[in-house]
Prior knowledge:
By secondary structure, this protein is an alpha/beta fold. 39% of the residues lie in helices and 19% in strands.
Amino acid sequence: MGKTILIVEDEQSIVDILSFNLMKEGYDTVEALDGAAGLQLALEQDPDLVLLDLMLPGMDGFEVCERIRKAGSSVPIVMLTAREEEDDKVRGLELGADDYITKPFKNRELIARVKANIRRADMSAPPPPASAAEEPLGARMDVDEERATIFKDGVPLDLTQREYDLIRFLASRPGKIFSREALMEHVWNYEGYVGDVRAVDVAIRRLREKIEDDPASPAFIKTKRGMGYYFGE
């Protein structure tokens, strides 16, 4: 049985193009032209991924995303936006979106993001043995793998799944520098990724705001200018 993609987009021409290209890749699609209809289909049809435009009549994409998450759904959400403002992207990620893609986009990039997010959702790590349920991430952080929770100074951090995956990956190789492209491949699961890598910068910025004493002078996730990011605690 094929995977189903819900397209929530108010421009019919874009819906037609997205549906055509996704169906060529073997996906089934359902479509909604406004936010309210998109929210209803997301909750009733249980799609494998939602392509969600931000600028929708009535209920915008931010509200649709927020309501999907509040309903308890963990369906991957990729936001479509014609805006370049980073604040919009940060807000979407903070509300629970897994990814974003800025219009106009190339079909190759769109399909890569769809495949990666579905693949990531399908990947289920086996439960860790009891002895590995808790382990340190440096002197001030610990991780409880069974609850997918990271603690800083004994206090649980309110992280999204992506933020959790990102810090776990970097902390597992302290001192090793990873480029944004490498993080796209290893954390976002975009194999051979080419395209917009600013999602990494947005995610790092949000993660620093949650874990650092002073995000402007990070102690945990550091930047090597011109090279990338590394865990330096």
